[in-house]
Amino acid sequence: MKYLYSTQPFLARCLNRFFYGGKHFVYAATSFYPYRSKNPKSSNPMSIYRDLYEPWRDRDVFDKYLFQTRESLVKGVEAQKEGEEADVLVDICRNVDIVFYCPVVYRIYRARVGKHRLERDNSRLRGSNEYVIEDLDETIPEFDILFLDYDRDADFNRLVSLPVGSSERALEILRGRCP
Length: 179
What we know:
Layout: E1 3-9, H1 10-19, E2 23-29, H2 45-58, H3 64-80, H4 83-95, E3 103-109, H5 110-113, E4 119-120, E5 130-137, E6 143-146, H6 154-161, H7 167-175
Antiparallel strand pairs: 1-3, 2-5, 3-6, 4-5
Helix pairs in contact: 3-4
């Protein structure tokens, strides 16, 4: 397989791009739709895309999957950051407008990542086809983003076009979209 695939909420892309130096922590499957493989739903990029897309599209802020996704991002922030910056990012993860949970798909160039950085995870299920990449590098680039074509929100579009590391401007935009 030439590519690996991972589905992320747009906010995860923002956190990685602006606050973690363009380094992304991802779970990646060997295909976008690992049909008939032993990948569980949590390791199926197409299922994750659907589970994010439906509440995002319906603006269903009470969706259980969306809530779990928010809390997963909180755990990631708490593992990476401390102090006031962590507090602000946690608040953003929990409260930012649902528009920033738009699903995006990473198409990862397997050869650019290299075998030594592909940690086999297998979801603890024998035969599952997924990997963990703890430092997927956006600056090289080691991946493309697919399905990032939402253009109905000015702040969303500003974040799409900001360069890696623009944390102050990104923070200003995201904080402005929290109640």
